[in-house]
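[09:14] KT: can someone run the structure on this one? pasting the chain below
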Amino acid sequence: MEKIKESGLQKIAESTLPDQLQLVRANLLGRKGELTDILKSVGQAAPELRKALGQAANEVKQILSDAVEKRGEELLNSLSAFEGEADITVPGTVPFRGGLHPVTQMCYDL
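[09:31] RB: done, structure tokens below
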């Protein structure tokens, strides 16, 4: 469990793009992830080990989920909405003024 936790936290920290982070999350916590396989195998473990194994797996899952969420927020806050330089001299779009004639609007509504 510690090995999965440490490698997972390292992979999360190394992610530099949101897409990479989602891929790491899927590999760790997804339907076919490493931790999900362990949680599925808890039922086959010895009865005296099930409780400890389940608690440890859920604790690691919560730690990794929190780390993914925190890193995702950091990445979104650090990324720019624009790719490259923004040209502030380009004129904006003119908003549409006016509306449809009431008879035309009624025809569209019908």
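[09:33] KT: thanks! The two ends are 63 Å apart (CA to CA).
[09:34] RB: yep, looked fine to me
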